[in-house]
Design goal:
Lipoprotein, about 40% strand, about 190 residues, alpha+beta, signal, Immunoglobulin-like, six-stranded mixed sheet
Length: about 190
């Protein structure tokens, strides 16, 4: 019984320290954005015969406008070319806006597509907006997400956790799956 009483005494304290508030995450004002420093506008990762690159063309963008982010996948193996198999795109651009703690998903249509990569010629795709919401989400998040979908970014500090997701197949049907990740960040500021 003594252990239960002791645990009950600490539960409110544990709850208060584990739950963040909007103030903890920041209010999206420039003072909370200043807490963050852009670390990486270009990132590269290699897996086997493939190099994945993720690039934000700037460290800062003007609020209400688009961001210029792209991903590349380059084949560097021994063959002249290789077929890769993937969903609607090879590239995913999920991100988080850190001052509000908002997640921005990157939904994808899922047909099975085939793309031929030529050795040394990167496949490139530009980000053009993403996200999703339901009528159960709070109105601030819905407004934020609608802006992102239209590639009209609100003020904030963003981290893109991008990746390339695909597989290859040998002539005898052996399949190799790839999910190559890289991360870039940027700020959107009122000017």
């Amino acid at each position: 019984m003594k252990n239960i009483t002791l645990l009950a005494s600490f539960l409110p304290l544990l709850f208060l320290t584990a739950c963040g508030t909007a103030d903890d995450a920041g209010n999206g004002d420039s003072s909370s954005i200043e807490k963050f420093t852009v670390q990486n506008t270009e990132a590269e990762a290699r897996d086997g015969d493939f190099i994945y690159r993720l690039v934000s063309e700037q460290e800062e963008y003007a609020s209400g406008g688009p961001v210029e982010i792209y991903a590349e996948l380059e084949y560097v193996g021994e063959q002249d070319s290789i077929d890769i198999y993937h969903a609607g795109s090879t590239f995913f651009f999920p991100m988080e806006e850190k001052t509000h703690g908002y997640q921005v998903d990157y939904p994808m249509i899922e047909p099975l597509l085939t793309t031929t990569l030529t050795k040394g010629e990167p496949l490139r795709e530009f980000y053009s907006g993403s996200g999703g919401y339901s009528d159960q989400d709070d109105s601030d998040y819905i407004g934020f997400t609608k802006s992102i979908i239209n590639n009209e970014f609100p003020e904030g500090y963003y981290v893109v956790n991008g990746y390339a997701d695909f597989y290859t197949e040998t002539a005898d049907g052996e399949q190799t799956d790839y999910e190559i990740h890289a991360e870039v960040d940027f700020k959107v500021v009122d000017e």
